[in-house]
Design brief:
Distance between the termini: 61 Å
Bound molecules: 6-O-phosphono-beta-D-fructofuranose
Low-confidence stretches: none
Structural class: alpha/beta
Order of helices and strands: EHEHEHEHEHEHEHEHEHEEHH
Number of helices: 11
Strand order of the largest sheet: 3-2-1-4-5-10-11
Length: 325
């Protein structure tokens, strides 16, 4: 296959640094004399034939901007064979020879199916704040989200300290505790509750007890969205029932974690991965995700990336406990 025209889309939850990756793909394409097309709103745009030509100047000034200029969507239609058929039809109709998708697990599942069913050349770039993709040390957006969370919790710490309060802070991560764990360590949380670990209230009660005994004047418990104990409000109620004398508040950080200007690391990683995605396509690679492992670009098959979980560093849990006394 001669690669003349390639398309790019962003799909799933957006993440800071997606624009930097789009810019890198477009400019690398232009560098190698390819024509690049942007697809609006992820797979929905593929199905609705929403393509536009992008040149080097179309991506000026976006390196430092959060969100995605191509917009994103979680496409229900693309989950169906009919939807993917329409997408493949439009790609061929527009003479597109290859597709680059930026997103997470769901995005790669769709990409892998499109490749398997229609033989379409595809490469994935990992973009999600959750960092839950196998085959890369950092997904694009994870570092920025972490920094946002840490900044927010530092502010919560100030007011918690002034009022001798305990805060339950919920951070994103439907299935993964990467943000919760690193932010927990970085902000000196009393306890961190993750989706990956079987935990129970006794452990949390012990931690709170320890805090009281050691005369801590502010306490932060970081809970990941997908934790098994419940919503932060349910967790807070349990604590209030057990310790009625404690002043307990809840903060849900929510989508603030997904926005903002990308950090240096996210910009650099997005640039490296964007270049790697185009160069690997030119070299005939397909059905893979480009990641960075130990500072080196590495390709992992989409299937492997989808079927394996990136594992959190459990050592950090131990460290968090030691340091929260
Ligand atoms: O992008 C991943 C993620 O941020 C998860 O951590 C979170 O559960 C989910 O997206 C929220 O998605 P939405 O914006 O569609 O509610």
């Amino acid at each position: 296959m001669t690669l003349n025209n390639l398309a790019i889309l962003t799909s799933g939850g957006d993440s800071p640094g997606m624009n930097a990756a789009i810019r890198a793909v477009v400019r690398t394409g232009v560098f190698y004399k390819k024509r690049v097309f942007g697809v609006q709103r992820g797979y929905d745009g593929l199905i609705q034939n929403d393509f536009r030509a992008l040149d080097a100047r179309s991506v000026k000034g976006i390196l430092s901007r959060g969100g995605t200029i191509l917009k994103s969507a979680r496409s229900e239609a693309f989950r169906t064979k009919k939807g993917r058929e329409a997408a493949a039809y439009n790609l061929n109709k527009n003479n597109i020879n290859a597709l680059i998708v930026i997103g997470g697990d769901g995005t790669f599942t769709g990409a892998h199916l499109l490749h398997k069913e229609f033989g379409f050349p595809i490469i994935g770039i990992p973009g999600t704040i959750d960092n839950d993709l196998y085959g890369t040390d950092n997904t694009i957006g994870y570092d920025t989200a972490n920094n946002t969370v840490v900044k927010c919790i530092d502010k919560i710490r100030d007011t918690a300290n002034s009022h001798n309060r305990l805060f339950i802070v919920e951070v994103m991560g439907r299935d993964s505790g990467f943000i919760a764990l690193s932010a927990g360590v970085a902000t000196g949380a009393l306890d961190v509750v993750l989706p990956e670990t079987a935990t129970n209230f006794d452990r949390m009660f012990d931690a709170v007890q320890r805090g009281v005994k050691n005369k801590k004047t502010s306490n932060i418990i970081v809970v990941a969205e997908g934790n098994k104990l419940g919503t932060p409000f349910e967790i807070s109620q349990k604590l209030i029932n057990k310790y009625p004398h404690l002043d307990i508040k809840v903060t849900v950080l929510g989508h603030v974690q997904r926005g903002g200007s990308p950090s240096t690391l996210d910009r650099v990683n997005a640039s490296v991965m964007g270049v790697a995605a185009v160069e690997n396509l030119i070299n005939g690679k397909s059905d893979v995700m480009v990641g960075i492992v130990n500072n080196k670009v590495k390709c992992t098959s989409l299937e492997r990336s989808i079927n394996n979980n990136a594992s959190i560093n459990f050592e950090l849990e131990r460290i968090s406990k030691i340091l929260s006394t």
